[in-house]
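3.2 Worked example (two chains)
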Amino acid sequence: MRILFLADAHLVHPDDLNYRHFLTFLKGQLGQVDTLVLLGDIFEFWIGTQRTAYAAQLPALQLLEKFQYQGTQIVYVEGNHDFNLAPYFADWPNVTVLPDGGGFTLGDQEVFLAHGDLANPDDRGYRLLRTFLRSAPLRWLAHILPSGLSWRIAERASRQSKRSRNKKSRRWPAQDILSNYARDISQRGYPIIVTGHFHQPFHEKGDDYELVALGDWIHQFSYAVYEDGRFELKSCPPSTAGDSSPSS
């Protein structure tokens, strides 16, 4: 059993470096994984109000479609940049969408999958924003807006989000927040927690939990693999020489 975990690619345009490398890396994984777990913010912006997507997203989605046609199970945990995705994947037989994360059976172990945006209970402003973004009125607005206009709005919001994320990373250390979160989740019967959102990769084992923070596919090009009963955090940075071999 080989399971691949990825998060926070924030894909925008297919000609961007991280987008091109995302496609190259995943093409090399076709037929090599039993389950592909995407832990949110794979796309920079996607409110999946209907069974359509932006043209810029199609190369990645077409590749994901190849995975599921070949029998790979796909688990998509929604993030804070890509959500309400169930309508798009409704006809994909091998795709499970988890809006708020949740439990996942890994052999004889129970794992909790989360994007990570709810890991910090003190970030009340974000929690209010999250509720608004997932509200019925906003889904309706996203449905009726011309795609070109909503894409421009999304790009502007993306720039603001990056500035906000940089400020929050200084205010709330990721490892402290996620370690506390993992301890809480472990009390619910999930000794293993896999998460994204904070863009910092690390693998931590506490007394009663194992935490895998995936990092991102922007700077670290990091991901995790579960194989032979254990997790391994890896990185596959793009190379000007075209060498995309992963490193531990």
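3.2.1 Second chain
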Amino acid sequence: MRMDILDIPIDCLSQAEALQKIASFLKEKDRFHVTTPNPEIILEAQKNPIFKKILKEADLSIPDGTGIVWATKVLHNKKIKRVTGVDLTRAICRTMKNSIFLLGASEEVNLKTRQVLEKKYPEIKIVGNYSGTPGANLEKIICSMINKSKAQILFVAYGAPNQELWIARNLPHLTTVKVALGIGGSFDFISGLRKRAPRWMQHLGLEWLFRLIIQPSRFKRIFRATIIFPLKVWQKKISQAFKKS
């Protein structure tokens, strides 16, 4: 089931259902783009028409963020489960035997992510990894690397909206990739170079507080996600109520 949050589609799937969907994509001849919208991404899309178009056209859009779960309840009276990009990335690496390419993050984080994944999942098939940049100057080189690797799954960790823009521009030129996923800062967490909030904070939807404590520089981003985004959602809710009356 797909629902709109501030005009951005969200697929209301569990992690297991998302994995099933991705597995079905891998059997098709087409190429598929998977996005991981959170409140920051949805707010960015409101002022970035190109980014918004890409999100609206995504083949799978998972609910990454407790704010998305809350907004779905407010706007659609639908209770869904959060599926984070990092958890989905780990699940794909754990359960799928397809060839994988890791793109993005810093050189240190990118390499460390590959090492951690290969140690944790001995059967994983990582056929290439590269830090690179989301700029257009390296696109041909990066696409050539990915094509030579014959990767079927591409994880792109350039952060939004750069990663989504990169995938939209380059997925048509990737000859073997079946599924490309924009996964934000997932490599930072998988590599262990950045800590995730304790599970009890994740369950209570307080990951934002943990990030604020360990990264005060994220204040503006967290403010937008925890204050501006809810205000926008309530404005949308009120607008819907007036239209119905």
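3.3 Remarks
Residues 2-196 form a domain with the Rossmann fold fold (CATH 3.40.50).
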